[in-house]
Amino acid sequence: MAPILSNQWIAKRRPHWDRLAFLLSRSDQHGLSDLSRAELQEMALLYRQVAADLSVLRRDETARTYTDNVNQLLARAHHIIYSRRKTTWLTLFRFLKDEYPAIFQRQLPYVAASLLVSVAWGLLGAMITSARPEFMRHYVGPAMIATMEQHKMWTESIVSVAPQETSHIMTNNLSVSFVTFAGGIFFGVGTFWFLYRNGMMLGVIAVACHQYGMSVPLWSFIAPHGSLELPAIIIAGGAGFRIGHAMLFPGGYRWKESVARGGIEATQLVSGVIPMLVVAGCLEGFFSPSHAPVWLKFTVGGLLFTLLLTWLFRRVKALPTEA
Q1: Radius of gyration of the chain (CA)
Q2: Fewer CB atoms inside 10 Å of the end CB: C or N, the chain?
Q3: Does the keyword Membrane apply (predicted)?
């Protein structure tokens, strides 16, 4: 049988196998404490890279020697990484503080594309509703319009059942974000569709509330939790686009290898939205629909958004990149 893999591919990937073997040997001799934080991060990244390489090697029966060697290397790495690593609150805190901002910044072009799509559809929805007020009924429905005609917010009922509603809100927000993320597996089209729905809905509701004199109640409701929830959806959309890009433009990688690498990076990116949505769900269930002063709601929203940007764009040491 003719070989599937080229010698150039083997030569390109071998240094990564050798580097992982070197780090594993050091940890075998002196323990993980002998490795620096950067080397630990590199080891974890190399583990994922080599796992992707193994899936490629298994497709070539003539590369059995390489397959066996890489498989043994991964078994060693799995034992060292997962048998000795304990996930603690401190570990999660360090990930969010030190690693996630670098992950976000590295995937910023995809997040920017997600933001652009959302804003574009939001503006289009606002313009269509302004020109044709009847268009809003297609999105908000007669019940919500009847509530706005009475100058009431449809969110007022949340206050009386805040504890139960908060759990539902968190689940719903997580579902929306992860469906937007998962839509990337359809070559990014699914992500585009969910961003369209979310952006269009917000644009339509914004103009509808303005026409009924409800802009202040709307934005004072959205401001506290929306300062985290809306960016979380945008980031999830960016993760979806990362998958779509990997599927459409594999570059110098084989298609499956490109998708595997894109999936890893996208999953890392979307993982950071979970704490954002948990906090947003608490705010949306208790604080946003409350009768707190409007100025306080806008202040809380502004402070949270400022803290979010400070966290995401803080200067951190760059993580090792996918080779």
Answers
A1: 24
A2: N
A3: yes
132 and 278 inside one domain = yes
Burial (CB count <10 Å: 0-12, 13-18, 19+), residue 144: middle
Q: What is the pLDDT along the chain (323 residues), one digit of tens a residue?
A: 445 666 788 888 889 999 989 888 888 777 777 777 778 888 888 888 888 888 888 877 777 888 888 888 888 888 777 665 555 677 778 788 888 999 999 999 999 999 999 999 999 999 999 999 888 887 777 878 888 878 777 666 544 444 455 556 667 778 889 999 999 999 999 999 999 999 999 999 999 889 888 899 999 999 999 999 999 999 999 999 999 999 999 887 889 888 988 998 999 999 999 999 999 988 988 898 888 999 999 999 999 999 999 999 988 765 555 44
- Domain region containing 147: 94-312
Round to whole Å and give the CA distance between 218 and 154: 10
Q: Are 53 and 166 contained in the same domain?
A: no
CA 256 to chain CA mean position, Å: 21
Give residue 30's region: left, alpha or beta (phi > 0; psi -120 to 50). Answer: alpha
CB burial class (10 A; 0-12, 13-18, 19+) of residue 207?
buried
Q: Are residues 274 and 136 in the same domain?
A: yes
Residues 47 and 185 both lie in one domain: no
Coil, strand, or helix at residue 7?
helix
